[in-house]
Amino acid sequence: MEQLNNIALDGVLQTFHDVAKESVKRYHFLNGAHVKMIDYSENATYLIQKEKEKYILRVNRPNYHSKEEIEAEINWLLTLHDESAIEVSLPIKADDATFVNSVEIHGITYHSSLFTFVDGKAPDEDKEEDLVRQFETIGKISATFHKYIIENHDQYKNYKRMTWDCETILGENPKWGKWQDGLGFTPERIALYNRASKTIKRKLEKFGKDKTRYGLIHSDLRLANLLLDGEKIKVIDFDDCGFSWYLHDLASSLSFIEHKPYVKDLIQSWLKGYSTIRTLTDEEIEMIPTFILMRRLQLISWIGSRDNDTARYFGEEYTIQSDPLVLDYLAKFEKK
């Protein structure tokens, strides 16, 4: 069975390679460039190199985002670049003056986009002292994005992007699959996590979606999507940007490290940086554990429904490591 799965994956990757090679032809200045896959996760990401110049080509997974949704992502990305001092990876127009290419292979349409290459390296989760300091900057970046969206709420309220709320994360047909289908679940663990899921839904329903709490966000500000350049932090990969609670950006910054003992220090540092741009209410701050656990359940869903290096690396151990977080959350909030 594993051999069959590998054969199937090889076929999928070859199709992405074919799309990438065809997409590069849409840029005359890339004639003769070297094309190399550097990541396969939600999408296929390629390093495009011609002499000393580097670019990033993203080939979107078919049927995950529509062309209109990708164009909305790019428009917001360009606006953030113009409205803030935060460095992002910028889209590059093809020869036909569009940002999104469409390539049809085997009757399936694939969309791709070319971006500027951004130098830097992701923050290191094992360097606690550095990470705590960096989270203050991450908090400032998040607040800058949120402040802009709140001030321009009417412009973005009908934007064509996905929604990340209880229904699309914890509901019956979630975007990344059901957490119950994650790895490492026993009937007892499912019952325990179901109590947590119900508590999360109840608290978020009460919390509401006022425009000061909910809007267009990056939604995947995990360490891999933040690049260090000295003390400066650059932001990449807006592929999952969509509508959610602003505090979901904090939770996503803690992706895959929610169980680490230093998380409390990271949160305090994030809040310190965030408060220099926006003020959070006591009610919002009290909701932080709810958003962190919802993100954790979302990632359990993602690991269980994906076949890539990251999902295989975390595996069922990520679910097992979640048990103390779930128990602590229920002790504090199930009856509150």
Can you tag this structure with a few keywords?
single chain, Aminoglycoside 3'-phosphotransferase, Chain: A, domain 2, Phosphorylase Kinase, domain 1, three-stranded mixed sheet, 336 residues, disordered N terminus, alpha+beta, six-stranded antiparallel sheet
Q: Describe it for me?
A:
It holds the Pfam family APH. Belongs to the pseudomonas-type ThrB family. This is Serine kinase. The protein contains twelve helices and eleven strands. By secondary structure, it is of the alpha+beta class. It folds into two domains: 2-116, Phosphorylase Kinase, domain 1, CATH 3.30.200; 128-333, Alpha-Beta Complex (Aminoglycoside 3'-phosphotransferase, Chain: A, domain 2), CATH 3.90.1200.10. Strands 1, 2, 3, 4, 5 and 6 form a six-stranded antiparallel sheet that branches.
Question: What would a concise description of this structure say?
Answer:
Helices cover 47% and strands 16% of the residues.
